[in-house]
UniProtKB/TrEMBL annotation:
It comes from the Archaea. Residues 3-51 form the Large ribosomal subunit protein eL40 domain. GO terms for biological process: translation. Gene3D superfamilies: 4.10.1060.50. Keywords: Ribonucleoprotein, Ribosomal protein. This is Large ribosomal subunit protein eL40. One of its GO terms (molecular function) is structural constituent of ribosome. The keyword Repressor does not apply. One of its GO terms (cellular component) is ribonucleoprotein complex.
Amino acid sequence: MPITDPELIKIVEKRVFEVSICRRCGAKNPLNAKKCRRCRGTDLRPKKKELAKFKAQ
Ligand SMILES: [Zn+2]
């Protein structure tokens, strides 16, 4: 589904792409999280992707 509204794109970027992924269990966490909310592990990696695949459609 194409997203054309610039405001909506900002919201989607924040909601979907500004998350940290736990390397241990793969759970999504807030970007500023220090610990995984599922397994309490501290090995989190940021997930920040472009919206290119949405814009291209
Ligand atoms: Zn975890």
